[in-house]
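mind reviewing this fold:
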Amino acid sequence: MGKTYQRIDGRLRAFIEEQPIFFTATAPLAGDGTVNLSPKGLKGSFVVLDEHRVAYLDFAGSNAETIAHLRENGRITLMWCAFQGPPNIVRVHGRGEPVFRDDPRFAGLLARFPDIDPTAHGLRAIIVVTADVVRDSCGYAVPFMSYDEDRDLHSRRFAREDDASLSAYFEKKDHIATSLDGLPGLPLPLPPLTARA
């Protein structure tokens, strides 16, 4: 049976920090809008900020649906599954906010991710999520799967970009500055990447 938690700590925190992949789900307010579900990985790109807030790095990709939905309404759910060890699923339902490169908080947040080179992945924003509800469930039907290693394709692709070329790349894409449903996405041109605090 599922249990609701008041904070992200102890065994719960250890579980989500150990998982090599998690999923994010967002949606626009419009009933006929496009629901978005994304896998997130890369070791070191997720952190627990405190007992009620988590954050992850938002890297270059083919669209910016999560950013657009968060800018419109802030609703987000994060989910972790145990693919090894005892079965477990943890969901954090909450409010998310994209913190962009030109935000005064950006450098301080980026310092919380010491193992990631932001220039190697086309870092666009840092997504900060404040938990409203934290729940776990059994996960009995989730299969066993092994984690071998992170792929290096993302860093190999985006490490060759500088701020100007990355911004130009985003401007050519259909669903970066504007979502599939026409919502404002990533603000362009992309501000220069600020140094770590």
Observations:
- The chain has a mean pLDDT of 94.
- Residues 3-141+151-172 form a domain with the Pnp Oxidase; Chain A fold (CATH 2.30.110.10).
